[in-house]
C-alpha cells in the first residue's frame, strides 16, 4: 500500500497501481512541516553551495518537511506553490499519458530542487512529481524563490547551472529509455537512486519499478532477478540492497556516468 498524504483530515492509503490516478492536488497535504529556526547542517548540496551570508538571508523562508513514499507533490498542470530541496529524500519526475501510463524522465535528490520551472518563470508543473524515496527536505514558497532568484546572486547562478544539469539528465534519460536494454536502464536507475538516498538499502516495490521504467511487472521481475543472480543486488519484500556497486556500474550504460559527472561539475563549481 502507498500513502498519498492527507486529503482533508483523513489519510488515504491506496494500492500503488492507483498512485497515478490523479485524485486532486496534494502538494502540501500530509507533509509534516516545521520552520527552520537556526542554521542546520545543510544536507541539500545546492543550498550548501551558497555563501553563508546568502544562505542566512534565505533561512527564515525555509521550512523543514518530511516527504512520504509515493506522495505526490505536483501534478501536471498544477500550480507550484512550493519548491523543495531534498536532503535524504528523492523525487521522481514522471511523464504521464492519459493519467495512467507513466515513465520517469528525471530524478531529484540532494543535488537539486523540485519546481525548477518556477525559476524559469513558469508557475505550473508539466510532470508528475512523486516521492520515490521517503525522507527530509526543506521547502520555500515559489513567490519567494522567484524574488530571490531574480537577483543576480549565487542562487541565481546556481539555479541556472542546475537547470542545465537537470535538462541534461532528462534528455539522456529519454534517450536511454528508447535505445538501451532494460538491464542497463535498471542498473542506471538503481545507481542514481543509490547516490541520492545515501544508503545501500532502500524501499522499492515491483509496481514502483514498473512505473518508473515504463514496462510491465514481468519485465521488471526478469531483469531484477538477473541482477540478483549476479549478486549485484538483493531484492526481497519491496526492499533493494545494493551488494556490488562497481558491478552495477559495469552493467549500466554510459548515461549514468555522464549524468553524474554533470551534477558533480555543478556542485564542485567547475
Which terms summarize this structure?
4-stranded antiparallel β-sheet; 270 residues; alpha+beta; 25% strand; 40% helix; disordered N terminus; 13 strands
Structure overview:
It is a single chain. With 270 residues, the chain is an alpha+beta fold. The chain contains 10 helices and 13 strands. The termini are far apart. 39% of the residues are buried. Residues 1-28 have low confidence and may be disordered.
Short structural description:
The chain is α+β, with helices and mostly antiparallel strands. It has helices spanning 45-48, 52-58, 116-119, 142-149, 154-179, 182-197, 206-213, 217-229, 245-251, 254-267; strands at residues 2-7, 10-14, 32-35, 63-67, 72-74, 82-86, 90-97, 101-108, 128-133, 135-141, 201-203, 233-236, 239-242.
> What proportion of the residues form beta strands (DSSP E)?
25-35%
What is the share of helical residues? 25-40%
Radius of gyration: 18 Å
What class, by secondary structure content?
alpha+beta
Secondary structure layout:
Layout: E1 2-7, E2 10-14, E3 32-35, H1 45-48, H2 52-58, E4 63-67, E5 72-74, E6 82-86, E7 90-97, E8 101-108, H3 116-119, E9 128-133, E10 135-141, H4 142-149, H5 154-179, H6 182-197, E11 201-203, H7 206-213, H8 217-229, E12 233-236, E13 239-242, H9 245-251, H10 254-267
Helix pairs in contact: 5-10, 6-8, 6-9, 7-8
Amino acid at each position: 500500500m502507498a500513502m498519498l498524504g492527507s486529503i482533508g483530515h483523513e489519510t488515504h492509503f491506496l494500492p500503488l497501481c492507483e498512485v497515478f490516478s490523479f485524485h486532486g492536488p496534494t502538494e502540501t497535504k500530509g507533509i509534516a512541516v516545521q520552520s527552520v529556526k537556526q542554521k542546520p547542517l545543510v544536507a541539500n548540496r545546492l543550498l550548501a553551495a551558497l555563501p553563508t551570508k546568502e544562505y542566512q538571508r534565505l533561512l527564515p523562508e525555509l521550512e523543514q518537511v518530511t516527504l512520504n513514499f509515493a506522495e505526490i507533490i505536483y501534478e501536471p498542470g498544477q500550480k507550484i506553490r512550493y519548491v523543495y530541496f531534498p536532503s535524504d529524500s528523492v523525487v521522481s519526475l514522471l511523464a504521464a499519458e492519459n493519467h495512467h501510463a507513466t515513465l520517469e524522465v528525471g530524478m531529484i535528490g540532494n543535488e537539486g530542487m523540485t519546481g525548477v520551472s518556477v525559476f524559469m518563470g513558469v508557475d505550473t508543473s508539466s510532470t508528475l512529481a512523486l516521492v520515490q524515496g521517503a525522507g527530509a527536505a526543506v521547502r520555500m514558497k515559489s513567490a519567494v524563490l522567484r524574488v530571490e532568484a531574480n537577483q543576480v546572486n549565487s542562487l541565481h547562478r546556481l539555479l541556472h547551472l542546475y537547470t542545465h544539469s537537470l535538462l541534461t539528465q532528462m534528455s539522456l534519460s529519454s534517450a536511454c529509455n528508447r535505445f538501451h536494454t532494460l538491464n542497463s536502464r535498471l542498473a542506471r536507475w538503481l545507481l542514481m537512486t543509490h547516490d541520492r538516498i545515501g544508503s545501500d538499502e532502500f524501499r522499492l516495490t515491483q509496481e514502483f519499478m514498473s512505473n518508473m521504467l515504463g514496462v510491465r511487472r514481468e519485465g521488471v521481475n526478469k531483469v531484477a532477478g538477473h541482477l540478483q543472480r549476479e549478486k549485484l543486488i538483493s531484492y526481497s519484500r519491496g526492499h533493494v540492497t545494493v551488494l556490488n556497486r562497481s558491478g552495477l556500474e559495469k552493467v549500466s550504460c554510459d548515461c549514468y556516468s555522464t549524468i553524474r559527472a554533470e551534477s558533480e561539475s555543478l556542485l564542485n563549481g567547475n
